[in-house]
Write a structure and sequence with these properties.
The chain has 303 residues and is mainly alpha-helical. Helix content is 40%, strand content 8%. A hairpin with a 2-residue loop joins strand 3 and strand 4.
């Protein structure tokens, strides 16, 4: 920021500083609003207002609806009330209790109340209601389930309500649960999945036998784009017993700068170099005299 401050000071222009962390988790948006208001900017909170610059576009109604529905899925699966959420925001989620969170909750709870009102008026339930009500009947002993063994696949994508449903099915003596999952592969948070049901498995179901599938009988083939490797693949790169190669059998090297990306070939004004695949998050560079073996001329042009 030093050079930016110098440029603005040189030309007599105004520089407003903010950080991503402060905007996401703190009161950065509120301070930014106050600063811009002080400088004469008038805010218009109408999402359908005309956009003058073509860049700062308001959130689409459809995107906001999907976000609200995803959040509602988590709220209802966990049977949270507004008071429950406030207690969590004051305790273990205090870091997220900022201006941005408050804006969202001001939008969310009236929608939640209207959703519940319309369900009640129609004498209807949604999917989360069905799960939670079924759980309530199981936990209260109102119904029984004559299953000796419950098997659940992809357990890392279970919601809290589904985990409670499974627990209710196996709470009687002589019942057994076989759950298979991998917390690295949790992808259904948008559908209410709660990773804590996997990481806190023993707290929910008690201690039992665990089998870690850490190796294949012969070999495992993973296919990944070199510029967009998942954290799971990056972790594998750190294992000396794992060999990872590119399509041309060129060894893939983890970035020494950040440890989160891989080195990819690029061209610059001073010649070829290796840079981190996570650029601009990581700016690590290594000059090379020539391109690594196996990189085609077409690939060089793309880099």
């Amino acid at each position: 920021m030093a050079w930016k401050s110098g440029v603005h000071a040189q030309h007599g222009t105004t520089l407003i500083e903010s950080t991503w962390a402060d905007v996401m988790f703190g009161d950065g948006l509120a301070r930014l609003k106050d600063e811009l208001t002080r400088l004469g900017l008038t805010f218009d909170w109408n999402p359908d207002r005309p956009v003058s610059d073509g860049r700062a576009k308001p959130m689409k109604h459809e995107d906001l609806a999907r976000l609200v529905r995803t959040f509602m899925t988590h709220v209802k699966s966990n049977s949270w009330t507004a008071e429950d959420l406030e207690r969590r925001l004051a305790a273990d989620l205090a870091r997220r209790n900022g201006f941005r969170t408050r804006l969202f909750l001001q939008v969310y709870w009236p929608i939640h109340a209207e959703w519940e009102r319309r369900l009640a008026a129609d004498r209807s339930v949604d999917f989360e209601d069905m799960l939670v009500q079924a759980v309530g009947h199981l936990e209260a002993g109102n119904i029984g389930a004559d299953y000796d063994l419950i098997m659940v696949d992809e357990f890392q994508d279970a919601s809290r309500a589904r985990a409670r449903l499974v627990r209710g099915l196996v709470k009687a003596p002589g019942r057994f649960l076989l759950a298979v999952g991998d917390d690295w592969q949790s992808i259904n948070r948008f559908a209410g999945a709660d990773l804590s049901v996997m990481t806190d498995f023993e707290a929910l179901f008690g201690r039992g036998h665990q089998l870690a599938l850490t190796r294949a009988r012969r070999a495992v083939l993973l296919i990944s784009h070199p510029r967009r490797m998942s954290p799971f693949v990056i972790e594998l790169l750190k294992d000396p017993h794992v060999t990872v190669t590119g399509s041309s059998d060129t060894p893939v090297e983890i970035c020494p700068g950040c440890g989160q990306g891989t080195l990819v070939g690029r061209n610059g004004k001073f010649g070829p170099f290796l840079g981190c695949s996570t650029f601009p998050a990581c700016t690590y560079k290594r000059h090379v005299q020539q391109w690594p073996p196996g990189i085609s001329s077409a690939a060089r042009r793309r880099h």
